[in-house]
Structure formats: structure tokens, C-alpha cells
Prior knowledge:
Chains A, B: It holds the Pfam family TetR_N. By secondary structure, chain A is mainly alpha-helical.
Amino acid sequence: MARTQGSRAEITGPLIRSEARKLFAHKGFAAVSMRQIAAAVGVQAGALYAYTPDKQALLYDLLESHMQDLLDAWQDDPHADPLDRLERFVRFHIGFSLDHSDAVFLSYMELRNLTPQNYRKIAGLRRRYEDLLDGILRDGMSAGRMNIDDRKLATMALIAMLTGVTNWYREGGRLDRQRIGDVYWGLARGAVGAD
Amino acid sequence: MARTQGSRAEITGPLIRSEARKLFAHKGFAAVSMRQIAAAVGVQAGALYAYTPDKQALLYDLLESHMQDLLDAWQDDPHADPLDRLERFVRFHIGFSLDHSDAVFLSYMELRNLTPQNYRKIAGLRRRYEDLLDGILRDGMSAGRMNIDDRKLATMALIAMLTGVTNWYREGGRLDRQRIGDVYWGLARGAVGAD
DNA sequence: GTCTATAGGCCGATAGAC
DNA sequence: GTCTATCGGCCTATAGAC
């Protein structure tokens, strides 16, 4: 399979995605031009259209694969102690959010730039993720290990609280990730009435 | 004081601000053109520049006045019971956020579009607001009414949790504001170890 | 204060060569 | 797969008339 001079498809594809993710997260989808993405990748703007039909599809691709990665990364044991499962979820969600902070930020900020159809797909994946936590809380209540007034609201409140770490966390700051996980697990345990 | 034909300064100024706030919140700062704002107001694009030197200043003005309104709206009684003060804060923050959801969303999403200097000013106002909650938690711990591992993180966690209401609240939904306040107060009370 | 007109520039996307 | 060149369009901001 002869290759055209200058072709580096295996590298260019992933590079477009990672540079676009960074730029979209830091400047906003609408504020980033295809030319800027191309410059960051090291190609000319026209070359991007060999990988994506348009700018909107590139955004959707980033959001969709992020949500899929998130769902794939979570491993639960439905038979374990609900409080242990919740603790693992707390540490997992914080860790994953910090490891993918650009994608997390994008997933909250740029939903409005999706077509209605694409928006529904991403919202569906997010809903699936929320249901994972909801299931843990449900089992915790059934087992009498948690005391929760409204389970759906508790789910949304916990996810917002945990994701908020990305708003203030700075590498090399006062607290390391283990310690942050400890503190947030204490907050979450109290919030679900597990003391 | 004669007025030029067609001049409606008292109306146009506030209208520019409110239409810009709506458009920026729903589409993103970079995605909204001055022409779109002008069309929503009912003037031509050039007329906007009698009220703002440029688009960036318009954004800063919206964020600055929002933070100032927030700080002005909160009334605390440092001598009251810390748990009562925290409950008032929880209900106040949720209510204010829902009443000003466009401005709240803007304040989180469009900080990146401010100049460094303007960013520092907004960050300073936000810090002052965080310190109001921090003070309540400090007094609660001193009085032995709260059990908090890390006060700064608890502050950030609570604000993120409460602000998150704007992500899912819909007018006329399953729960009214009073009930939402009840549920979140329960979560917050547990999180600060007040049970 | 508001209008019309416009300068100067960047945009997304495509065509065609290699 | 990547490049160069380009179309048609929209952008911010300003100038000058009323």
C-alpha cells in the first residue's frame, strides 16, 4: 500500500482530536477556527476535511467518545457494600474528571453547539452515567446504609459537587488527589446520611 | 434638554445588557455577533457602540454587575446560629442562581473571554462571595456545630453542589423551589457533619 | 442617539493539483 | 493525505449624516 508523500494519517487523526479538544476547551467552540486547529496540528486547513465532514461533527465526536470512555472506565460490583461502592465512585469520578478536564469542561459548556439530534445522544449517555450513581444510592437506601430525601436530586447534587473539583484544582497545589478524594468522600458520606 | 429623534437612551442601555446576557448565555460569547444583539434590541449594530466601547467590555460589564448584585443581595447575621445561617445561605444561593440563571451560566463559562486584568477583578469578587460561606463554616466549627475536614474544600464543594441546580431545574418541573431548598439543605447539613 | 455605509479582515468549506 | 487557491459570506469597529 504505497503512501502519498506527506501522508501521516495514523498520527494526524488523533492529533486533530486532541488539539481541537484543547482549543475548544480553552477558547470556546465558536471562538476557534479550523485554521487554528490546523496550525496546532501542523497541516493546512483543507486537510482537516479528510477527517471530519465539518466543524460540528468534530465537536460531537469529541463529546461522544468522552462520554463513552467515561462509561467504559467505571467498573462496579453490585454485590459489594453500597458505601464502598459510593466511595469508589467518588474517587473514580474525581480522578477521571481531573485526568480529562478539557473534555469534562467541553461536555458541560458546548452542548449548546450540538444539533438537537446530537444533543439528545450525548444527553442519553450522560443520563446513563447518572443512573450508575443513582443505582448505588438506591441499593444504599434499600440496605438501610443511607438516608436520602430525594434520590434523583442527591444524584445530581453529588455529581455537580464532584465535578466542581475541576474548577479549582491545580497540579502541584496544596492537596494531592488522594487527600482530595478523602475530603470529598467525607462530604459525600455525610450528604447521603451514612454517618 | 432636547432629544434627537429616535433617541431612547433610558430604554436602550438596559435592553442591550439584557439581550446580550440572554444571547451570550444561550449561544456563547464568541458565537454571538454585535449585529444579533442589535437586532434583538431593535437598533442597528453601530448604535451599540454608544453604550459600550467594544464587545469584550459588554461581557465584563455583565459579569461584574452580576457578581456585585450577588454580593449585595446576601444579608447575614454573624450572631445567629451557624446552622441557621448555613440554611439561609443554601436557600439564598439556590434562589438567586435560579433567578439569574443566564448570568450564573455566563459567570462560569465566559471567564476565559475576559482580559487577564478583567479576569482578576471578577475572580476577586467571586473570592469574596466564597469567603462569606467560608466564614459561616468557620463559625460553625468553632461552635462545635459542624464537623468539617477541610473548610476550603467544603466551601468549594457546597457552592458547586448548589449552583448545579441550574443545570437541571426547569420551571414547572417535579419540584418547586421550597422543596428543592429543603432537599439541598438536608444534603448540605449532612455534608458539614451537622447531624 | 441612531442611522447608513463601509473598511479591512477572518471565517467555513470546496476544487483541483500532486 | 495534503497542499494551494479561492468563493461567498459574515465579522468588529468606525466615519459621517441627521
